[in-house]
Design brief:
The protein has 19 helices and 11 strands. By secondary structure, the protein is of the alpha/beta class. Strands 1-4-5-8-9-10-11 form a 7-stranded parallel beta sheet. The protein has a two-stranded antiparallel sheet with strand order 2-3. Helix 15 runs parallel beside helix 16. The longest helix has 25 residues. The chain is globular.
Length: 386
């Protein structure tokens, strides 16, 4: 197996030089795309869409057919793992995901076990394999999972939460029970991600979406050690190629140095921290992914380009080790055409930064705007399947 024709995303994660800053978007396949909404309608429900490998492949490829993105990400959901543990995942209209059997009783927590991903989550592995075939080696495929703590939040609360009352009550009153959940879930996530890698995922990402809700001390005890444990067990090479890993703790800007020490290749950062400051803090230990405020995509194309330029300039003109992304998932209300403006801006502006154009001339922004208006997507960028 060779690297994809467009391997800029993988090279950036490994802090190798790239001709421009690669870009993909969290939730890039989602409700802001009318074609996704139509596929979801045909599937009958979100969960049925996730569990249908052909349809999961279809929606994974939809944003790549529209945009010049540098990576695809598996279409699935982080809650497939606790669903495979027998908690009974379902989705209620207007209420999001819920579990029929949240973990509240000690006996249920003691009986919890990690599922075999090749058995209980085979539909995900089938989707990964199908997506890799459909991509035809054009761009890399990212596999993913939720972090143990984030999954535990849903598993204990039974749904999303604003105050995390149930899990924090357990954390402070019965930390032994929470550690039991986290330990089993860490084993499940490790097996799940490795199965995705064996099925064809070329990079993996762990979404610690609720890690930022913890205190500093609690993060060090209940999230970080389990992230480290997973990273230590991941397959690092598959068919002769490195498989990079990304860890994203939303709200984790205070703990960047600690995250950089767990062995991951890259850290995802949200929009609440300056990415240049983040780079100074982690040094050369890891690459960084991020971190435009998703709300920028409600602005004009000119503003989107300018704000993207600020992120690129803050990271640094050489751009080594930077994957451009949003600071969290794209909103379902985002105008699809604004994503075109963002992706083209990142590619064009980062090429100009690498050439030194933005630093040599006060007319650089005018040149950038003119280039965006007349040339379309930068030459040499990835081929889009479909």
């Amino acid at each position: 197996m060779t690297r994809p024709c467009n391997d800029s995303f993988l090279r950036a994660l490994l802090r190798e030089p790239t001709e421009y800053t690669p870009v993909w978007l969290m939730r890039q396949a989602g409700r802001y795309l009318p074609e996704y909404c139509e596929t979801r309608r045909r599937a009958g429900s979100f969960l049925q869409l996730c569990k249908n490998p052909a349809m999961a492949c279809e929606v994974t490829l939809q944003p790549l057919a529209r945009y010049d993105l540098d990576a695809a990400i598996l279409f699935s959901d982080i809650l497939t793992v606790p669903d495979a543990m027998g908690l009974g995942l379902y989705f209620s209209d207007g209420e999001g995901p819920r579990f029929e059997r949240p973990l509240r009783e000690e006996w249920a927590i003691r009986d919890l076990s990690a599922p075999d991903p090749w058995d209980h989550l085979r539909y995900v592995m089938d989707a990964v394999s199908e997506i890799r075939r459909a991509l035809n080696n054009s761009v890399p495929l990212i596999g993913f999972s939720g972090s143990p703590y984030t999954l535990a939040c849903y598993m204990v609360e039974g749904a999303s939460s604003t105050d995390y009352r149930c899990i924090k009550s357990m954390l402070y009153n019965r930390p032994d029970l929470l550690h039991r959940i986290l330990s089993v879930t860490a084993d499940a996530v490790s097996a799940y991600l490795n199965a995705q890698i064996e099925s064809g995922a070329q990079a993996v990402m762990i979404f610690d979406s609720w890690g930022g809700s913890l205190s500093a001390a609690a993060y060090q005890e209940f999230s970080l050690p389990y992230l480290r444990r997973i990273i230590a067990t991941l397959i690092r090479q598959q068919n002769g190629e490195r498989v990079p890993s990304i860890v994203f703790t939303k709200g984790g800007g205070l703990w960047l140095e600690s995250i950089a020490d767990i062995g991951c290749d890259a850290i995802g950062v949200d929009w609440t921290i300056d990415i240049g400051e983040a780079r100074r803090r982690v040094g050369h230990r890891v690459a960084l992914q991020g971190n435009l405020d998703p709300g920028v995509l409600f602005a004009t194309p000119e503003t989107i380009a300018a704000e993207a330029g600020k992120v690129l300039a803050s990271y640094g003109a050489d751009g080594t080790g930077h994957v451009f992304n949003l600071g969290h998932g794209i909103s379902q209300f985002t105008p699809p055409e604004n994503v075109t403006a963002l992706v083209d801006a990142v590619h064009t502006r980062s090429r100009l930064l690498r050439s030194g154009t933005d630093r040599k001339s006060p007319q650089a922004l005018d040149l950038f705007t003119e280039t965006m208006a007349t040339s379309g997507p930068p030459s040499g960028s990835s081929a889009n399947p479909g």
